[in-house]
Amino acid sequence: MAFPALLDTCVLFPQYLTDTLLTQASAKTFRPLWSRGILDELGLALEHNTSMTSEQIQHRLDRMRTAFPDAEVTGYEHLVDGLTCDPKDRHVLAAAVRANAEVLVTANLKDFPEHSTKSFDLRVVSPDDFLLDQLDLYPAPVLHCLEEQVDRYVAVHGPATVSELCTALDRAGVPKFAAEVRRNPLCQDHLRQVEVSGSQ
Fold it and tell me: pLDDT digits over 92-138, tens only?
């Protein structure tokens, strides 16, 4: 069974990063988790920081719930007051603890100091380090997922190659992962194939 990883609001906000994470989750390289509180925060962040309409935001949240019906953690609220991480993120840690997540993926590492998590057998990692681990464990599936993303973007004029997607992911906060994908032998083979087909 894929290992459970709770995804904080901040890693579900950037479009390409979210798509990369959830495409890999669809390939069963890990099991994604979130809570109602996290999705509520995500909706507010999208409302205040993007040009998305309320209908587009709701559609995005509904698609996440439909794609991963077992991802939403419940029954964690009673744990919040006993936690010692940053107060605004205690609901996130409580959901991770309640779900027995092995990993909490967040860009806000400083909000989860070691003393607040060490008793829960829970690793707190950045999205960059998480995706690097994914690439190390599942190099072929991860590259396939990136190719799958690019294929989907054709209709919406997004990144047209894995290399272009890596550029977008670099800007989205996972530069080490993007650089490692470009150096990966499987990716190098793919890029050479693209160049050859494009020159014919």
Answer: 999 999 999 999 999 999 999 999 999 999 999 999 999 999 999 99
Nearest 5°: the CA angle 69, 70, 73 is 120
Q: Are 85 and 93 in contact (CB under 8 A)?
A: yes
Q: Please, where are the H alpha helices in the chain? A: 9-12, 15-26, 36-49, 54-67, 90-98, 114-117, 127-137, 139-153, 162-171, 175-183, 185-199
Nearest to 112 by CA among 140, 89, 81, 135: 89
Question: To 5 degrees, how large is the angle CA 149–CA 70–CA 23?
Answer: 10
Query: Could you tell me if 20 and 145 are in contact, meaning their C-beta atoms sit under 8 angstroms apart?
Result: yes
> Which residue, chain included where needed, has tokens 């793919």?
190
Nearest to 167 by CA among 158, 183, 152, 178: 178
Separation of CA 117 from chain center: 20
Whether 184 contacts 135, CB under 8 Å = yes
